[in-house]
């Protein structure tokens, strides 16, 4: 039996690779993102790879007033949704965030509040159907605030706490909530950053996501070694950590 998959932020590199994997499984896909031209290309590729059906919908995640209408339309299209993947985000210029309140608030909305808004709507819909998985890409950056990216990290950390509560709320309703915490990923969003051995390809992250959804994992650190790295970072005493240049 095919799965019905809703992907929000479908044009992100990780989402695109995940879509390809679900397409090969013969899933029915509904893809949402801001760039309609790229959405169409990804949809066509998914169809060629074996998707049962693919539909697209333009969505600017920061246009929160339109969320409810668009989510209702997605459910009307798919009827029942087995997996929701939320994969949108931006990597802000941290210095610009430090300098300008408006930049900080915009990035917090894009990386945090817009997803909270979507999750509030999706949780109610999924609770009504009493099944399915909600999977959200956050980041290892949300595990501890660091001077180099604490705006981005704060948004992702907020999401992780929100997802914990949502998982607790929906557990006995038949709906599972997965928090996906990638480390460094080689994507267009990180193209200007120097790469090293800790960096992963979007294909690797996508394969881990599909597996974690099937296993109903609670929190996925991907690649796996980031669980150990972040465990060490979280346990560094604050009187030491605040002196570190991270």
Looking at this protein, list some descriptive labels.
7-stranded parallel β-sheet; single chain; globular; 7 strands; 49% helix; 246 residues; 9 helices; alpha/beta
Based on CA inertia axes, which overall geometry fits?
globular
The strand line-up of the biggest sheet is: 3-2-1-4-5-6-7
Number of helices: 9
Structural class by sheet pairing and helices: alpha/beta
> How much strand?
15-25%
Rg result: 18 Å
Distance between the amino and carboxyl termini = 47 Å
Order of helices and strands: EHEHEHEHHEHEHEHH
- Which runs of at least 5 residues are low in confidence (pLDDT < 50)? none
User: Percent helix among the residues?
Assistant: 40-55%
Main pleated-sheet profile? 7 strands, parallel
**Number of beta strands:** 7
Q: What is the residue-averaged pLDDT?
A: 96
Explain what this protein looks like in three dimensions.
- The protein has helices spanning about 15-25, 35-50, 65-80, 95-100, 100-130, 150-170, 200-215, 225-235, 240; strands spanning about 5-10, 30-35, 55-60, 85, 135, 175-180, 220.
- By secondary structure, the protein is an alpha/beta fold.
- Helix 1 (about 15-25) packs across helix 7 (about 200-215).
- The radius of gyration is 18 Å and the shape is globular.
- The termini are far apart.
- Strands 3-2-1-4-5-6-7 form a seven-stranded parallel beta sheet, with helices on both faces.
- About 50% of the residues lie in helices and about 15% in strands.
């Amino acid at each position: 039996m095919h799965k019905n998959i809703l992907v929000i932020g479908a044009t992100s590199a990780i989402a695109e690779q995940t879509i390809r994997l679900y397409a090969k499984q013969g899933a029915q896909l509904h893809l949402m993102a801001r760039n309609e031209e790229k959405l169409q290309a990804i949809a066509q590729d998914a169809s060629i790879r074996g998707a049962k059906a693919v539909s697209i919908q333009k969505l600017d995640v920061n246009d929160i007033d339109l969320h409810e209408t668009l989510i209702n339309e997605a459910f009307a299209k798919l009827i029942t949704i087995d997996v929701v993947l939320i994969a949108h985000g931006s990597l802000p210029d941290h210095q610009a965030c430090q300098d300008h309140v408006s930049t900080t608030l915009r990035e917090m909305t894009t990386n945090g509040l817009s997803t909270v808004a979507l999750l509030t709507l999706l949780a109610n819909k999924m609770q009504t159907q009493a099944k399915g998985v909600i999977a959200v890409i956050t980041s290892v950056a949300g595990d501890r605030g660091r001077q180099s990216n604490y705006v981005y990290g704060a948004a992702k950390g907020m999401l992780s706490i929100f997802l914990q509560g949502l998982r607790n709320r929906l557990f006995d309703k038949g709906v599972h909530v997965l928090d996906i915490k990638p480390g460094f990923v080689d994507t267009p969003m990180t193209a200007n950053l120097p790469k090293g051995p800790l960096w992963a390809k979007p294909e690797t992250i996508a394969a881990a996501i599909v597996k974690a959804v099937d296993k109903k994992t609670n929190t996925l650190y991907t690649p796996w070694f980031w669980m150990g790295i972040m465990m060490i970072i979280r346990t560094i005493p604050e009187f030491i950590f605040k002196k570190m240049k991270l």
